[in-house]
User: Fold this.
Amino acid sequence: MNSSTPQPQQAAKPTSPESADTLYESRKKLYVRAVTGVFANWRWALVWITQIIFYGLPWLSWNDRQAFLLHLTERKFYIFGWVFWPQDVFFLAILLIISAYALFFFTAIAGRLWCGYACPQTVYTEIFMWIEQKIEGDHIKRQKLDQAPMNGEKLLRRGTKFVVWGLVALWTGFTFVAYFSPLDELLRSVTTFGFGPWELFWILFYGAFTFLFAGVMREQVCKYMCPYARFQAVMFDPDTLVITYDEERGEPRGTRKKGIDPRTVSKGDCIDCGICVQVCPTGIDIRKGLQYECIGCAACIDACDQVMDKMNYPRGLIRYTTENALKKHWGSKEILAHVLRPRTLIYGTILVAISLAFVWGLATRDPLRVDVIRDRASLAREVEDGQIENVYRLQVMNMTEAPRAFRFEVSGLPGVKIGGEQRVEVAPASTQAVTLQVLVPYDAGKPGSNPIHFQVTAEDDSSLSVREETTFLLPR
Assistant:
């Protein structure tokens, strides 16, 4: 046959699912091995501290009310002895700035400390994994249980785990709502199931996401949903303490008998046991270098140190160190000396300055606030005795938690005075609107706008006083 003769084309073979390129990596379920050690103790200490605060704070009382309540309905935020109003939103802005700089500061020093120890995703995943371990067993038993066919024991263990997870998640959702709605009202609603629509929604919503994120998705949240993992590299530099595998000391890897000097068998200290991978909550191999999935929990350090102890090798094959320290073989003194570098000094200085300003603002915050609005419906009118009257509406905010009586005074023009009642009683942590008529002689000022001042003073405490400026209109 002539080589130029066209050959019939063969039909393309269908591509098997195994050989096809996929856009997304399919998830491989992790069976995280439990670990003990110094850093594990620190993680559990943070779990206890954060959850005692979270679950316990709504139950604390202060002045016959909930100590910490962000009351959305009343638009008042009760935080121990302080009562904040919507006008105090700048305190929230400053607090968010402090949180951001704290994150920058600690990340520049020691990486993802927040993620590894105090992030709610880490904390609740730790709690849910502990429940799972108690009910289903260690990582090997959990894997076998997953692979086993459905039977009575598997159904019982799975069902018990989900029920306990669900109860913890619902209680978490209930506690979350108790920060925004009074706890005593919520407890009464439990007995009658008389929750408001938004309260029930947020209890179920927050509880469902706690169940989903901490019980089901776990490391997927950290790897694919958390934005911090994506921009952490911007905050790192060669002097940032991160969890690092000492490749120079550990390679080449290989198994050997206990107590054998690795140099005599041409190997490094790493015995390639893989336990550092088994204990990792995100399933990475730290021996491949720092990866964005690493949340800085240091579980691999605890695991590796235990293996090193069993092999009679020095600890620290996996440890907190810096890129420069690893390259230049620095000790702890050199590492600490490089912690105080320009970046951390700038972050620290700004953080301290903003924190001091925040504390000063809270300490000097005036518990009395007065807003003055002139009645524009009647700008100025002549009344008896030839006097000119302007009407003002004063909004008196008593930010203390005691009922107070306030007295009004006015100044700024000759003969100016207040007509009618000159005092008002305001309930604790509430607002009272007052309408005042201010009178001045016709010739007391120039035609047009004239400045005057209202002085509002508590009758039982003269130091509790506010002076507000406004204008008085005289007809031309």
About this structure: The two ends are 115 Å apart (CA to CA).
